[in-house]
Amino acid sequence: MTRKIEFTTRTLVVTTGFLFLLWFLFQVRDIILLLFTSIIFMSALDPLVERLASWKVPRAIAIFLCYIVVIGLVVALVSFIFVPIVEETGRLIRVFPDYVPALLRQINIDPAVVDRTILEKQAETLAQNIGNIVNVGRSILNGFLGVMTLAVFTFYLLLERGNLERYLAMIIAPRQQETILRVITLMESRLGAWVRGELTLMTIIGLFSYIGLR
Length: 214
Prior knowledge:
Blueprint: H1 9-27, H2 29-54, H3 59-106, H4 116-141, H5 144-160, H6 164-171, H7 174-213
Helix pairs in contact: 2-3, 2-5, 2-7, 3-4, 6-7
């Protein structure tokens, strides 16, 4: 028994609209990702901004002070970790062929049997790979526009966070405003706590790793 399938105008419009929405979201996926990341950063920084604002510091200035602290920490971290890694990796590549004979003797292999040119070629290959990694790092650093966009998004989210209740009043019925506000506040609190917890955990692990390796 055959079954007749009918497509109404409403079904066609809804399907077309849904497909168009998927296509649109795919086209602006980078912006959505930046916006979501900005929300996470906003949730992490908002308690500090609120604390400064409670000390009668203008909200915009409080945000700038938070930015200065974050940028200072990032610059210090990069200079403390990335630069020594690049320098020590280059030094290792240069001295690696000289240490190979001693290593081979440790495992009872005659260094004369191993062709030094092969080792040098392997070292050159390693150097090229390290160079590719450095180029990738430079490409990441060249994403300055993306970082600035993220900073601007986060800045405006932090700046307008105090007006959230007023915005909700414009688009949501009064009986639902309290519930929506409570949910948003809870989400921000959990996201912010997660980010701060991860940063604290990374700092502790990095500090103990540094002490142990020293």
